Amino acid sequence: MTIPDALQTYVQRGIFKSFNAQPDQRKFDFVWLNRKRMHVHWNAGRNAIVFKDVLHNIPARSRHYREVRAYLKGRTSPDLPAHRRVDPDLFDLVCENHKSVVSVGLRLKSGSQGAAVRRLTALVHELFIYHHDRWPEYMYENFGSPLE
Amino acid sequence: MSIDTRPEEGNTAANPSRRSFLKFAAVGAGAAASSPMLAGAAGAQEAGDEAARLVVPDEIANRDQAPLPDIQFPMTGANLFGRACALEDVKAMFCCPGNYNVIHAIADHNIPSYSGRNEGSMTHAADAFVRATGEIAIASGTEGPGFTNMISGIAAANSCRTPMLLVASNMRVEQDDTEQGIQVMYQQPLTEGIKKYGKRLITPHRLPEYIGYTFRQLKTGIPGPVHIDFTGEVSNHQFEGEADLGHYGSVARYRTDSRPAPAAGDIEAALRLLDQAERPMIVASTGVFYAKAWDALKAFAEKANIPVVESGPMMGKFPHDHPLSAHAAPDALASADLVFLVGQYCMPTVGEFAFGPDTRYVRIQPEAGDMGRNLPVDVGIFSCEKLALEELADRARSAERTSWLNEVDAARRAFADQNQSYYEMGRGYSEAVHPAVIAKELSDFLYNGDLAPEQTTVLSGGFGIARYTRRFLQAHRPGQVVNGAYQFASIGPDVAYAVGVAAGVQLGAGAQAAAQGAPIVCITGDAGFGFTGMEIETQAKYRLPVINIVYNNNSWGTWYSNRDLPRGAQLHLFQEGVRYDRMAEGLGAHGEYVTSPDQFLPALQRAYDIAQNEGLPSVINCQAKREFWIRDEYEPGFLGKVEPGVMSYYH
Questions:
Q1: What CATH number is associated with residue B193?
Q2: Which residue has the higher pLDDT, B9 or B324?
């Protein structure tokens, strides 16, 4: 399954809404978590799929960003069940912070494109759940989640 | 007088200063519940302290012994309505004076009736009564401001899908548009969008017909509040005999208890998904409670080895100490590959529940019109929850799921470890009472001490404090925990909610039968207490044994996210050290002021003893500090949440 095909499965199931794909099938955007538009880039040269600029207002030298990186690194732990784990033999985790805007992705090693989309989509979902739990005020200020 | 346990004043847990409550003859919890007469004026005379000057009038204390009028035809519309409420087994009414014909008719038909200090509070009380018991209750208010006070309560009940009956008087039709006298207004437009059904009754002889509409709406489908406003022409109309009622004189002729059964094909489709799933989970929500489907739920879960997590405005549809409970295992949620959403009327949107993007959903509910809203559905089962679960339990294949159950168990242990670490942090802050101390020690008191774990019903409210207490609360039977604010997120009804919950427990109504007469616990904050704190007087006068725990951090919960605003921060603050305990004493309750962590548990024990032995409410004023929400100063700070499960709040 290709990257576009894998993303389409979420569109068909009603998880992603208002889906757009650029003609070169390298950039995609859709409405998903917290009803926000999200941007996925497929870099064939780097063999990487990235949720681009998915979290804003997290300074690179902040405690928040350190904890986000630690959380993501924890998702590669061999202690996690296989269905929850980012297997380092299959993928490298990508987490980049450019001017306090964070992108999260996977670089494919031996994993398939379809598996990469499923793994990364689940990972971003879990990253949001982690924020609802650990950083509620951030979700309130940046994603409009209720603080009550 | 308050029991002020601050060490510098020489008080210790073992030797409190003095008790400032009415010293009635010792009465057990059950006796307190069934014998409000024990709280009469004579009892007050036995007490020698300041608070004993409060006298409960005999009319309240002996209300259950007062004679019932013999109401026969010809009867007024109000009495006909009261008769119908009794025939429909309405369990309680909460009101303030007003709508006189109707509330007196309801009381005269032997429906337990409570009056409080504000119509809004009493509407919240009725809502909570229903959520705790599963039985129908009435909220009543007078026309005009009495009714408008009730609007927030009906909105909250609507978000909870509470089958509550709101009745209000509404002058006379002949006064419409005149502004003759006072309080002339149209009510129904003001409850548009926050009720299941509503009607202004204007045609007197059609009252029986609208009694039918009222109870059909309350007792079928996805529940919700019903708002009926009575014009004077209707409540005063004379009905001469049964012949005036037509077929509406008989419950069996104007509605049915028949329930929609699941289609065989839908059950088969759901079971096919179950056979393919490796990590299924059941979300037991509102509909499981109102359909009384907990036995069928347990049978299905146990046969197919499916973990169960709860959501909704009340907890306990599945016991939290059951090996299959995933209620306190939030990290397992994202692993579920198939979820049965059972009676999840308040449906989250994509991403609000922690289930992952690849999760498939089977949705079970008694109205098809709501199926597919917000979350995509893979199989929809239009059915009464109980009938569908019974069918699934009959036809599901047994399965081991060892790996999945181990994963859930590991998540449960990880969550417990995290909570323990929060408690140890909180215990280390000695200058005030940290919320983790309240949460953990309350939990140990209720579930790991001398009390039977299933005994105590809890109204789980508050704002920041709730983020901690929810993590530690348990429900071992249906309705044992009522989720106060829930979807409408009202901050403030908690003390009023506790009136309704305690009344349900006092009466042993519906799901609270096994707990009849036991003390209950109400958790709230200082901001919330400000809205409905006067209902402590209602708790006291009806001898409702409520232990109200007030988390007092001198501020609204909103302070910490606005604390840096130069002009705005003060808008989120109160005076420091407000003595809610002393206020409670003035209203006839027992008060405790707790200022350090080691004082909390002894105060809780004293309050519980008073509730159990004397049927009196208490306020435990826990002095915290607002800076506890700032993580950089006081780890772990303000907590977030993961839904569904023990932290469920919105859905």
A1: 3.40.50.970
A2: B324
Q: Give the pLDDT of residue A111.
A: 87
pLDDT at B51 (0 to 100): 52
Which residue of A31, A33, A121, A147 is the best one to mutate when testing the B interface, meaning the one whose CB has the most B CBs within 10 A?
A147
Task: For residue A118, give the chain B residue with the closest CA.
Answer: B358
Q: Is B64 exposed, middle or buried (0-12, 13-18, 19+ CB in 10 A)?
A: exposed
Pick from B279, B560, B642: CB nearest A132: B642
Q: Write down the H helix ranges in B345-479.
A: 385-395, 402-427, 435-447, 464-472
**Where are any strands of DSSP class E within B271-403?**
280-284, 308-310, 314-315, 338-342, 360-365, 379-382
CA gap B66, B59 in Å, rounded: 8
| pLDDT of B112 | 98
In this structure, the answer to whether residues B276 and B397 fall within a common structural domain is yes
User: Are residues B199 and B245 part of one domain?
Assistant: yes
Q: Does B14 score more than 60 pLDDT?
A: no
| Full domain range(s) for residue B314 | 264-405
- Per-residue pLDDT tens over the stretch A22-54: 999 999 999 999 999 999 999 999 999 999 999
Strands B113-115, B92-95: pairing is: parallel
What does the pLDDT look like over B532-555, one tens digit per residue? 999 999 999 999 999 999 999 999
Taking each helix axis from N to C terminus, what angle separates B77-87 and B100-108, rounded to the nearest 10 degrees?
40
C-alpha B326/C-alpha B473 separation (Å) is 14
Closest CA relative to residue B505, chosen from B474, B545, B472, B537: B545
- Choose among B550, B501, B504, B556: nearest CA to B525: B550
Query: Does residue B171 contact residue B207 with C-beta atoms inside 8 Å?
Result: no
- pLDDT of A83: 97
Q: Hey, is B129 helix, strand or coil?
A: helix
- Summarize chain A as % helix, strand, coil (round to 5): 40, 30, 35
Q: How crowded is residue A27: how many other Cβ atoms within 10 Å of its Cβ?
A: 15
- Does B416 map to a domain? no
Q: With respect to CATH, is domain A3-143 assigned 2.60.40? A: no
Q: Where are the beta strands (DSSP E) in chain A?
A: 17-21, 27-31, 37-43, 48-55, 91-98, 101-108
- Chain B environment of A146 (Cβ under 8 Å): 489, 650
**Cβ-Cβ contacts under 8 Å for B449 (sequence gap 6 or more):** none
Contacts of B279 in chain A (CB under 8 A): 83
Q: Is B358's Cβ below 8 Å from some Cβ in A? A: yes
- For the segment B25-48, the average pLDDT, to the nearest whole number, is 38
Burial code (b: 16+ CB inside 10 Å, e: under 16) for B170-199 equals bbbeeeeeeeeeebbbebeebbeebbbebe
| ipTM exceeding the 0.90 mark | yes
- Which structure tokens are listed for B21? 């409550």
CA–CA distances in Å: residue B335 to residues A117, B391, B438, B512, B534:
16, 26, 32, 34, 46
pLDDT digits (tens, 9 = 90+) for B116-173: 999 999 999 999 999 999 999 999 999 999 999 999 999 999 999 999 999 999 999 9
B interface test, pick of A11, A120, A131, A148 with most B CB neighbours within 10 Å: A148
Q: Which of A9, A2, A51 is nearest to A27 (CA)?
A: A51
Q: Is the pLDDT of residue A146 over 50?
A: yes
Find the helix packing angle between B402-427 and B435-447, rounded to 10°.
120
- My answer on whether B516 and B608 are in the same domain is yes
Same domain for B250 and B270: no
Using a CB-CB distance cutoff of 8 angstroms, which residues of chain B are in contact with residue A126?
334, 356
Nearest CA to CA, how far is B646 from chain A (Å)?
13
Nearest to A125 among B357, B407, B485 (CB): B357
H or E element that contains B95 = strand B92-95
Residue B111 has which token pair? 């429906």
